Structure formats: structure tokens, C-alpha cells
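Allow me, if you will, to draw on your knowledge of protein folds for a short while. The matter concerns a single protein, recorded as an amino acid sequence and a row of C-alpha cells. Kindly check, if you would, that the fold set down in the C-alpha cells agrees with what the sequence suggests. You will find the record immediately after this paragraph.
***
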Amino acid sequence: MEWGPISFAIILGLGIILAFTLQVIRMGIAHEEKRLAMKAGVGDASRLEQIIAANEAEIAKLRQRVEVLERLATDDERRLTREISGLASDRTTA
């Protein structure tokens, strides 16, 4: 039996289909591993803890600023002038 161009095309086509199928299977396995890792929360907990700590520190700083602004807004004029002068001198020494 002679191997003609049709036989060659069929074998080549089967090889291409097999290679494509293997690639799809590899991609599916990689996707499933990533999905399971995300579901298990691998590495996310420590990153989230760092973000929460940074946010809490920023909130504390902002609360202090708001407290200063509230004091400045509600005090009488003489005390306001003194506080502003004190803040200005704190900045120059820092």
C-alpha cells in the first residue's frame, strides 16, 4: 500500500489535533490549580493583614488631624492664634 498525500494530511491533522488537545488540557489544569489556590486563600491573608494595618495607621493619623481642626474651629480667637503659632513652630522644629 502506498502512502499518498491524503494519508499524510490525515496523520498531520491528527498530530495537530493531539497537540491542541494537550495544550487545552494543560491550560485547564493550570486554571484549576489557580482556582483552588484562590479558594484556599494561599498568600492572601498576610497581604490583607498588611493592607488593614496600613489603613488603620492612616485612619489614626486622619483622626488626629480632624481633632486639631475641630479644636481650631471651635475655640475663641486668642486661643486659635496661639494654636496656629504653636503648629507653625512645631513644623519648623520637626
